[in-house]
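From the methods appendix. Each design record in this collection lists the tokenized structure first, followed by the designed amino acid sequence. Records were kept in a plain field format so they could be parsed without special tools. The example shown here is representative of the layout used throughout.

RECORD:
FOLD TOKENS (173 positions):
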């Protein structure tokens, strides 16, 4: 039987994941990825919230658009978390942990107009794109081209979401 002291020491032991990045890079990049993951979950849940509560004459199109966007956002969550682990860091452990780290605000309103939903998601996706660029900058600082490469694709996806939401909200002549 293991000594309880040995078990406590194992829990406190530093990860020894083999990586070409130094300890500072692991700390800074995995920390930035953790905050990004929290924002990704916040953006996903808000997009699904608005998808579930969409109403009005353009319901079907907007409902389907938001479902498509939510799926795209959710699809990157595992890649973000696993990238942090691959470089020797840790990642989110709970919803509470995510809530403490997220920078995007929630929307718990009982009713939001379709126009306000689209505008809020457009703005959040623009902010999210900025967060992606910030993490890319951290990766550049440490020469982490693998993470930077992933982020470049996510920036393109986020810019496309912003574009679709912008065009959806434009008044037609």
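DESIGN:
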């Amino acid at each position: 039987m293991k000594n309880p002291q040995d078990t406590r020491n194992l829990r406190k032991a530093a990860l020894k994941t083999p990586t070409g990045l130094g300890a500072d890079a692991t700390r800074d990049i995995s920390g930035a990825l953790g905050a990004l993951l929290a924002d990704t979950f916040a953006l996903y849940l808000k997009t699904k919230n608005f998808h579930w509560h969409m109403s009005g004459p353009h319901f079907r199109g907007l409902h389907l658009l938001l479902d498509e966007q939510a799926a795209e956002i959710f699809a990157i969550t595992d890649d973000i978390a696993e990238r942090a682990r691959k470089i020797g860091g840790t990642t989110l452990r709970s919803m509470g942990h995510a809530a403490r780290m997220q920078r995007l605000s929630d929307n718990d309103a009982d009713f939001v107009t379709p126009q306000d939903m689209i505008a809020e998601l457009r703005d959040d996706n623009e902010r999210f794109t900025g967060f992606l660029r910030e993490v890319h900058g951290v990766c550049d600082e440490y020469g982490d081209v693998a993470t930077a490469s992933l982020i470049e694709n996510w920036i393109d996806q986020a810019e496309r979401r912003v574009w679709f939401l912008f065009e959806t909200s434009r008044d037609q002549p």
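APPENDIX NOTE: Helices lie at 4-12, 23-52, 59-75, 77-86, 95-101, 114-142, 145-169.
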